[in-house]
Amino acid sequence: MTEKEPSYLEHHPNGRLAYFKTGGGPPTVVFMAGLMSDMAGTKALFLENLCREEGWGYVRFDYTGHGRSGGTFKEGTIGSWHQDTLKIIDQVTEGPLVVIGSSMGGWQALLAAMARPVRVKGLIGLAAAPDFTERLLWPDLTKRQKEELEKNGEIHVPSDYGDDPYIFTKALFDDGRKHLLLDKPIRLDCPVRLIHGLADSDVPHWLSEEIIDRLISPDASLTLIEGAGHSLSSEDHLKILREHLEDVVAIIKHQAL
């Protein structure tokens, strides 16, 4: 079955942003996908069905150069995708938000919560990967790859998730250094729930442990799942996500009383 046509935010500098919005709420849940992923993944669709069932608002979207949005992937950076996220929050959503980010989307969720502290009332990270350009990618590059980055402005790295390689640009690394979070306290005045697999070979679980160490939040926790990899998309993993989201929404509603 072909998915219906998304809505679009027009007049975006790098092309229109594609999104789907489900009415309901408060709160509204906003899902942020990972690098080279999109809003049609298992977790994104699971959350849409859950929010519809519970009567919560929901928005899923594609960053520039991803999925059904305009632009090209290699023109994107952490900062430009952050601006995409804020455009969606500011122009598509209303009221209190719970932001949920997967992998690179976890970095985006943290940045969004810090940029919109009045709006964001809760955050869930799924194998969250803040600072991955500096902590994970850069140390693994060979001397030749770093030289190629300087010379050509980009390198192509095979992906385990499809035929298309990752295209990592010098701009991605340079811009990523402007948005690093793990070198200082992360101040959030909302409940934070992190979920990470102990068998994650793409984003090691110590990254979520470091987020917890850096967080200054009234209510933060980390759930580590034995044997779980990076996707966190199995029925059992989605059940854990549901439980955490229900917990965060209950806290938000109690605080609103």
The overall average pLDDT, rounded, is 93
CATH class: Alpha Beta
Rounded Rg: 17 Å
| Total number of beta strands | 12
CATH fold naming: Rossmann fold
Low-confidence blocks of residues? none
What's the order of the H and E elements?
EEEHEHEHEHHEEHEEHEEH
> Helicity range of the residues?
25-40%
CATH superfamily: Alpha/Beta hydrolase fold, catalytic domain
Tell me about the largest β-sheet: 8 strands, mixed
- Span of the ends, CA to CA: 42 Å
Describe the model.
The protein is of the alpha/beta class. The chain has one domain (7-131, 185-256): Alpha/Beta hydrolase fold, catalytic domain (Rossmann fold, 3-Layer(aba) Sandwich). 38% of the residues lie in helices and 22% in strands. It contains 8 helices and 12 strands. An 8-stranded mixed sheet has the order 1-2-4-3-5-6-10-12, sandwiched between helices. Strand 5 (97-102), helix 3 and strand 6 form a beta-alpha-beta unit. Helix 2 (78-92) crosses helix 3. The longest helix has 22 residues, at 235-256. It is globular and about 60 Å long. The model has no long low-confidence stretch (mean pLDDT 93).
